[in-house]
Amino acid sequence: MKQTIVTMLVATIATMTLSTVAFAQRPKMTTQSAPAQSYTPSYAPSYSLRADNDLTALVGLTGGAINIGVDYARMMNSTYGAGGYFFFQTSKDKNNSPIVTQIMSFGGLMKINLLEANGVKVYVAPGAGITLVKDGSVNSAGAKSDETVIGPVWKMGVQFKLAQNFSLGLESTTFGNFFNDNISMSTSAFQYYSVAMGFAF
After folding, report:
1. Integer CA distances (angstroms), 25 to 19, 28, 29, 62, in order
2. What local confidence, expressed as pLDDT, does residue 115 receive?
3. Torsion of CA 28, 34, 38, 41, to 10 degrees
4. Which residues of the chain have pLDDT under 70?
5. Alpha-carbon torsion (66, 152, 133, 182), positive or negative
6. Total Cβ atoms within 10 A of residue 80
7. Which residues, including other chains, have CB under 8 Å from residue 159's CB and lie 6 or more apart?
8. How distant, in Å, are the alpha carbons of 116, 117, 127, 157 from that of 121?
9. How far apart are CA 10 and CA 169, in angstroms?
10. Measuring CA to CA, how many Å separate 84 from each of 69, 139, 167?
11. Residue 97: its pLDDT value, please?
12. What are the strands, taking DSSP E only, across 103-165?
């Protein structure tokens, strides 16, 4: 009888010991009390819809002669901005007479967006600059001379947005004359039309 009791006691102790060891090795289930924080990698790009710089590339034809140019404005807001321009018109002769005069002009301007809605932008850009006119005048002896003109510049155009930062349209540029009485810049020869490609960045 004593041997049976001792055997049962040893078996019980052994069973309890094995159960304790087995449960001690099982991982505990934990519940997260704080919500997980979102993480944005430092290399993730950031996109801004506001463009501070307005660049317009120009290319056109006047009587078969090509003209190229560029306008730039640092936009203070979406309505107006200040910047500068560069414009170059090649010359063309017909029957040894110039029908298109070569000019190069540069100066400052103020760009004003009159309308910007539904992908359409209408703008004007008044300014002033220096215009170099090749063979701009002819003296009494028939000799040609180059002329330098200081005067107002008037630009106006319309562009249609084709992408987030690209638009396409037309722009006209007119140069005026303040002081030089050797040349008349009031004729249509000093008004130019160009295809305008706008880049906002």
Report:
1. 10, 9, 13, 89
2. 93
3. -60
4. 1-50, 140, 142, 184-189
5. positive
6. 14
7. 56, 120, 121, 123, 167, 168, 169, 196, 198
8. 4, 7, 19, 8
9. 98
10. 11, 33, 19
11. 74
12. 103-117, 120-138, 144-163
d(CA 60, CA 57): 10
Which residue has tokens 């106006």?
156
Single-letter amino acid code for the residue at 48: S
* 8-state DSSP, 27: P
- In this structure, what token pair is assigned to residue 115? 């309308």
Query: Which pTM does this prediction carry?
Result: 0.70
Q: How far is CA 153 from CA 130, 138, 175, in A?
A: 9, 24, 5
Distance CA 197, CA 69 (A): 11
Separation in Å, CA 171 to CA 26, 151, 193: 78, 19, 6
As separate numbers, helices (DSSP H) first and strands (DSSP E) second, the chain gives: 1, 10
Cα gap 88→54, rounded to integer Å? 20
Which runs of consecutive H residues, i.e. helices, occur in the chain?
2-24
- Determine the length of the chain: 201
Nearest to 105 by CA among 70, 137, 72, 73: 70
| 2 contacts: CB under 8 Å, gap ≥ 6 | none
pLDDT number for residue 137: 78
Rounded to a whole number, what is the largest CA-CA distance in the chain?
150
